[in-house]
Amino acid sequence: MLSTNHRKLFVITTVLYTTCSWLVSSYLVIVPELQSHYLNTLLATTVSLKQPNNQQVCNKYKSLGRELEPVSNQILSGSGILFKTKTDNSLLSLPTEPLPKIHPNAIKSSVPIIMYHDIILKKEGIYDLTPQELEQHFELIKSSRMTPISLDRLVAHLRTGSPLPHKPIVLTFDDGYGGHYEYVYPLLKKYNYPAVFAIYTSSVGVNAGRSHVSWQQLKTMASDPLIRISSHSKTHSALTKLSEQQLYKEVAESKHTLEVKLERQVIYFTYPYGNYDSRVKKIVAEAGYLAAIAFGTPSEMFAGQSKDLFAISRFEKSHLEKVIPRAWGSPVLPQCNS
Fold first, then answer.
1. CB 36 within 8 A of CB 152
2. Count of domains in the chain?
3. Cα–Cα–Cα angle for 237, 240, 246, rounded to 5 degrees
4. Which residue would you say has higher pLDDT here, 275 or 253?
5. Which of 48, 69, 95 is the last residue of a domain?
6. Would you say 202 and 235 are in contact if contact means Cβ atoms under 8 Å apart?
7. In a domain, 338, yes or no
8. Is 78 in the same domain as 129?
């Protein structure tokens, strides 16, 4: 049995660890909020489009609309989202739909989200691709004049109806395989394509069977502006079959672990196996996520046709050629349609 002094030391150590973890998590939440507040209140060059048919603003952004990108380091869950272009210094504020609704203008767009899994030298299953095959996909995207966009840009579009490039696409890679760092990440940098990596935390650094990324590799990728990390739960369990306590543990603990290890906010969730129900969606929202990516429930569809932000649909990679001709981004600001 532990002595009295040892028990005291154990309790003190536990309290200190919990306090430090809480402080790190608080920092990750508070700092972006302060940045968002600064952007929304102190920049005199911000132009608002809360009122429809602001002719001056509509005329200005008629040719720049497709270049609009959400300003980084802002909270995307607020009542307005700030956008900028590379050629103009002013910021444009667009009102959002109430969470988790999708903006009517975004419903008209056709943004495919493509789902990939392991990238490996020798394929072992139907979800695998070789690095050469993945580069062929990237070349097809390039030759088809598609524009890969970040998940932040997509979610900002889904919330505000903001314009997108002519043929937008979102790239996602599930399960945190070792090939994601070894093969995918270098190709993304080569083509300058943004992407989302869905990580279930119990697999990080585990190389029994297939290899997986280490925490250091993941931290390197997460620090790159091209990369967004999404939680994929703690153990990749079928969430609809879990008790409420188990479900919350899978959803909330994975978020906390990723945020502490990577020192940045994690606001997106990717459902293991793509499956969810109303109970799972509720827990994901309560855990502090902004949006969640699904697959095949009820069927593969473009992002704007999804039920809401907690049920964003995807296409499996084998459908890439089929969805490219149908991809389309809304060309104008929703307030300037008439």
1. no
2. 2
3. 60
4. 253
5. 95
6. yes
7. no
8. no
- pLDDT bin (cut points 50, 70, 90) of residue 291 is very high
Residues 75 and 108 in one domain: no
pLDDT of 37 above 80: no
CATH at 266: 3.20.20.370
Q: Which one, of 129, 104, 105, lies nearest residue 116 by Cα?
A: 129
Rounded Cα distance between 78 and 93, Å, is 11
Domain boundary among 48, 74, 95: 95
The continuous run of DSSP H or E covering 116 comes out as strand 113-116
Domain that holds residue 12: 4-95
Quick one: 129 and 88 in the same domain?
Answer: no
The helix (run of H) or strand (run of E) holding residue 200 is: none
Instruction: Extract the tokens encoding 180.
Output: 């994601």
Q: In 3-state terms, what secondary structure has residue 46? A: strand
Q: Look at residues 201, 184, 187, 189 and name the one whose alpha carbon lies nearest to residue 270.
A: 201
Residue 337: strand, helix, or coil: coil
- Alpha-carbon dihedral 151, 152, 156, 157, rounded to 10 degrees: -30
Per-residue pLDDT of 123-142, as tens digits, reads 999 999 999 999 999 999 99
How, if at all, do strands 113-116 and 315-316 pair? parallel
250 and 219 in a single domain? The answer is yes
- The answer to whether 123 and 129 have CB atoms below 8 angstroms apart is yes
